[in-house]
């Protein structure tokens, strides 16, 4: 029996690759060099177009993909902004630090990555995440949600939408 999800379910792996190639062809797949065997996609998006920021993102599969542990945010794929880093964006914000895990950013969560704590974009609330034979979070769907988050975050940072929309998720 194979240990990693992509070995034990090669059809799921192929479906992931096909979806990413179709919807986000500039992203490439790699394996973390930390001995975990975890796969990740890396690429850049600019959801607001030429006037928006360019986001360099890592989409990191957990080893239990497509399942997620009950109560965990983000599903089985974590979205880690490499550039800009969420901490760097937050350090420039003149807003209430009690929102967004003390960073002031909406819909993020903390987790360990390697030897340090990182902040990830939350793309799946555990109460809405469903895994199974016919439904799971894919890298393409997680990245789509991350792009939506980026659009809302940038609009909020630019003052185009108010706190209620950005922080409360009323979208």
Helices and strands in order:
Blueprint: H1 5-8, H2 10-23, E1 28-31, E2 39-45, E3 55-61, E4 77-83, H3 86-91, H4 100-104, E5 108-113, E6 116-121, H5 139-157, H6 163-168
Antiparallel strand pairs: 1-2, 2-3, 3-4, 5-6
Structural notes for this entry:
This protein has 171 residues and is an alpha+beta fold. The chain has one domain. It is built from six helices and six strands, in the order ααββββααββαα. A four-stranded antiparallel sheet has the order 1-2-3-4, with helices on one face. Strands 5-6 form a two-stranded antiparallel ribbon. A hairpin with a 2-residue loop joins β5 and β6. The radius of gyration is 16 Å and the shape is globular.
Shape: globular
Average residue pLDDT: 79
Topology order in helix (H) and strand (E) letters: HHEEEEHHEEHH
Counting DSSP E segments of at least 2 residues, the number of strands comes to 6
Given helix and strand content, the structural type is: alpha+beta
Q: Distance between termini?
A: 43 Å
Strand order, sheet with most strands: 1-2-3-4
Record keyword descriptors for this entry.
alpha+beta, 171 residues, 22% strand, 4-stranded antiparallel beta sheet, single chain, two-stranded antiparallel ribbon
Outline:
The protein has helices at 5-8, 10-23, 86-91, 100-104, 139-157, 163-168, and strands spanning 28-31, 39-45, 55-61, 77-83, 108-113, 116-121.
């Amino acid at each position: 029996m194979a240990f990693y999800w992509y070995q034990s379910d090669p059809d799921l792996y192929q479906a992931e690759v096909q979806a990413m190639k179709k919807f986000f062809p500039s992203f490439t797949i790699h394996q973390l060099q930390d001995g975990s065997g975890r796969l990740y996609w890396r690429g850049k998006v600019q959801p607001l177009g030429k006037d928006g920021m360019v986001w360099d993102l890592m989409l990191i599969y957990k080893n239990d993909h497509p399942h997620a542990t009950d109560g965990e945010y983000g599903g089985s794929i974590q979205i880690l902004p490499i550039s800009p880093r969420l901490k760097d964006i937050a350090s420039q914000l003149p807003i209430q630090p009690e929102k967004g895990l003390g960073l002031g950013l909406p819909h993020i969560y903390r987790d360990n990555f390697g030897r340090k704590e990182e902040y990830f974009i939350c793309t799946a609330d555990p109460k809405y995440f469903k895994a199974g034979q016919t439904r799971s979070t894919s890298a393409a769907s997680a990245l789509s949600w991350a792009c939506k988050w980026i659009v809302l975050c940038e609009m909020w940072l630019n003052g185009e939408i108010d706190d209620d929309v950005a922080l409360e998720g009323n979208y």
